[in-house]
Amino acid sequence: MKNFFMRLIPVIIALALIFAVVYFVFYPEYQDRFEYSEEYADLMEYFRLTNDTEVAIILQDTMIPEKARVWNGVYYFDLATVYKYFNARFYVDEREQLVLYSLPDHTDRTEIGSWTISTIDGDKERPFAMTRYEGDTLYLAVDLVKDYTNFSYDVFRNPGRMQVYTEWGQVRMARINRDTHVRFRGGIKSDVLTDISADTRVMVLEEMETWAKVKTADGFIGYVELRRLGEIYNERQVPVTDYVEPEFIGNTRDHKISLGWHYIGGMAGNDTLREVTKNTKGLNVISPTWFFLNDDEGNFLSFASHTYVKTAHEMGLEVWALVENMTHNPDMLELLSSTTKRANLINNLIEVALEYNIDGINVDIEELRSHTGIHFVQFIRELSIPCREHGLVLSVDNYVPYSFNDFYNRPEQGVFADYVVIMGYDEHWRGSEKAGSVASIGYVEQGIKRTVEQVPPHKVINGVPFYTRIWETKGGTVGVWQTVGMELAWDWVSNRNITPKWCEITCQYYAEHTGSDGVFYQVWLECIESLRVRLNVMDNYGIGGVAFWQLGQETPDVWDVVLDYLAD
Asked: What's the chain's Rg over C-alpha atoms?
């Protein structure tokens, strides 16, 4: 027996050597392929943080590139982040160091760096600065933003991160069935983001063959093995309703608006009211060009007349006085970017409106540069407050929408103003490089369609032209020969024995003529047919009315077409 065991020793040694060789040759490969990594990710790198004041933002189920900041336990968003994701209504006056927020009946304000905010109910103080600069970047306290915006947030430390929800709906949830890791990617060799215990709930964002993308309650978005999830079920999130958007009750009318702009070149122009309206039918608003901004302090030249208002009211017309900036060309950036100067202009407008018993203000501020847009919109917000208080209709004239004039911010106008008026003309203007229609039907419909995508249709008024342009091409150069009213345009055609042809593309009559001197003339004519087509389009979009630039340039027959439109 002893000899038998002695003979086994070499065999055992040989097997041990073989096992050792197999182990050392194949185990590293086995370990590399099948053993789970216990390496933890650098969380500062994962959350893309560079210092302890930065806070990652998980918005809904995505970590956005922007960062919040935390100072002395108070969390802040920079202004650009607030505008992009939460609320673009905050207004900053950098010169006067103010942050403003306009509501239907007042504007709250706080000085930058202050712990106090002035509201309609008096000053309210918080135990922290509600706004602050860090370098050149302005930050708003998250709780200040939350005072005017409906969202929820939870914060976590080490490293700093914030889970934010602005929308709530149905989500897919599951419970972890065994202690496990949440990994950076789907794979056992991926770095560990965080440990997660059995019975912990996670949100299931995506399912793959053997892994699932999940989000933990404390803001980690990563992967766990599918076999570590219990039953996946649907759950409806409970929405937060900490802030309810106030209702902006304005002064819109319960009937279609039929507005005529009345150009007043001076006080004597007021005496032409009866003359320019003698043939009108269905007109219910007149807008005299009364207020001409003439400096950057908020002052204006006024041609307002008590007699004009009294006469208009006796004729059954509301008076929406127009304020404009083109005649005297003041510095609009200087005027509108100052809270003090805006207030002066608004106070002056309201004072004269009440003095003359007018019914509304029509704002015709044109030719702004894009960087002035944010200040113009704040002017409309602030002007709307006393207009709403005193029952004055606030209407704002706008170009046909294009991306290059989006800074006029028609959606925000549609909240604060009573009417957003499209100036649906000047498709081809005096400086155009080629001749064309003032308002082809495609141009008109495009303006209406784009506007009602941004503004409630009942608040939209479309302006139509009572004028056209006669174009000349001389020596290869195109220019405007004359801008004329409807009657003069038709007289020009008739005097040259031209027979206009209907153009289906523009839905206007078109005429051309070559003079004895070789000059080539073109004109796209306005008439009852072109007006009827536009009014039909306007009816199709259900907008709030029509406006005419300008009274006195039309032929009398157009008013029967207007009556048909108003009767629909």
From this structure: 35
Q: How much of the chain, in percent, has pLDDT values that exceed 70?
A: 94
**CB burial class (10 A; 0-12, 13-18, 19+) of residue 281?**
middle
Q: What is the mean pLDDT of the chain?
A: 95
The model's confidence at residue 12, banded by pLDDT at 50, 70 and 90, is: low
Domain 168-236 class in CATH: mainly beta
* Among candidate residues 336, 325, 295, the one with its CA nearest the CA of residue 95: 336
Structure token pair of residue 287: 């807008």
What separation in angstroms does the CA of 287 have from each of 164, 503, 549?
48, 32, 10
User: Distance of CA 82 to CAs 87, 91, 194, Å?
Assistant: 6, 11, 30
Matching residue, tokens 């937060």: 240
Reference 192, options 160, 157, 223; nearest CA is: 223
Say which residue the tokens 């150009």 belong to.
263
CA angle 242, 243, 249 (to 5 degrees): 150
User: Residue 568 — pLDDT band, cuts 50, 70, 90?
Assistant: confident
The pLDDT of residue 552 is above 50: yes
Q: What is the rounded CA–CA span in Å between residue 112 and residue 133?
A: 8
What homologous superfamily is domain 257-466+530-567 in, according to CATH?
Glycosidases (3.20.20.80)
- Domain residue spans of the chain: 46-156, 168-236, 257-466+530-567
Residue 436, number of CB atoms within 10 A of its CB:
17
Asked if residue 98 has pLDDT above 70, the reply is: yes
pTM of the model: 0.92
Which residues make beta-bridge pairs with 508? 503
Res 28 pLDDT > 50: no
Report whether pLDDT(24) > 80.
no
